[in-house]
Specification:
By secondary structure, the chain is α+β, with helices and mostly antiparallel strands. It has a single domain, classed as Jelly Rolls. About 25% of the residues lie in helices and about 25% in strands. Strands 1, 2, 3, 6, 9, 11 and 14 form a seven-stranded antiparallel beta sheet that branches. Strand 12 and strand 13 form a beta hairpin. About 5% of the residues have low confidence.
Length: about 260
Amino acid sequence: METARLFNFRKLTEEELISYRKNGYLIIRSILKPEGLKQMQTECMEAWSREKESFDPNKSWLQNSLLVNIHHQAATVRDYYFEGPLVEMASEIIGPNIKGATSQLTFKMKGNTKPFGWHQDNGYGELEPYNALTTLTALDDTDRGNGCLWLIPGSHKEGQIRVYQNENQKKSQSEIIVKADDSLAIPMEMKAGDALLFNCWMLHKSDGNMSESRDRRILFLRYADADAVEVYNERKPRLGRLVKGKTKFKEVEAFEADL
C-alpha cells in the first residue's frame, strides 16, 4: 500500500516539541488524507461489526467500547501503525528505538453515555522507561457533544500515580480512577483525520456520548521505547513490533514478524 497516498507525513517542529515537553500533548491536524480516513473508517467498521453489536447498557465498558489488536483486521491501520507518520513523531519524542505497544479501537457509539473517569494510560499497563506515547486518531469529528477527551495540561509532570486495587477489582478489570481538578481540564476537540498525542502520565478522561445521532470513534495506538518492560509483569519486555531502530530483547526482534 502506498502510504503517502493515505497519510500526511511530516516532522514535528521545534515549537511542537517544546510544547509537548511543557504541556504533555499535541494535536496533529489532518494526519490522515481524505482517502486514508475513508479506508480506515470502512475497515474498522467492518472489523467492529464482526465482533460487536450496538451499545448495550448491561455490558461492561470493555465489551461496549474496545476492540483490541485492530491492526490484525484492518490493512490501513496496520500500515498506519507500522509505517505511518506517527512512527517518526514517536521517535522524535521517545528516542531512536521504537516499538508498537498497543493497537485498539476505542469507540463511544451513540447511546453510550457512560463517562470514563480521570486516569493515566500507564496506570493500565505500566511500562518503563516512562516515556510511552499514546496516540488517538479521530475517525469522527469529536467534541463535547459526543464524548471527546479532556485532559489537564502539564499533569504528566506529576509522574506515576499509584492507585490501590484489591484482588477482586483486578480480576473484574475495574477502572483505575484517580482524583483530579476538573477546573483545570480542557477539551480535546478534533476533526475526523486529526490525531492527539500525549504522554503516558497525562491525566485524561472522557464524558459520555450525549449525541443522539453521532458516534465517537477513535483509533488508539501506543508506542514505547523498544526496550520498554512491563513493571507489573516481573519486568518482562513488552512485546510489540519493532518499527524503528533496534532492541536488546530477542523476543521483540522475533515479534517483528507478527503482523
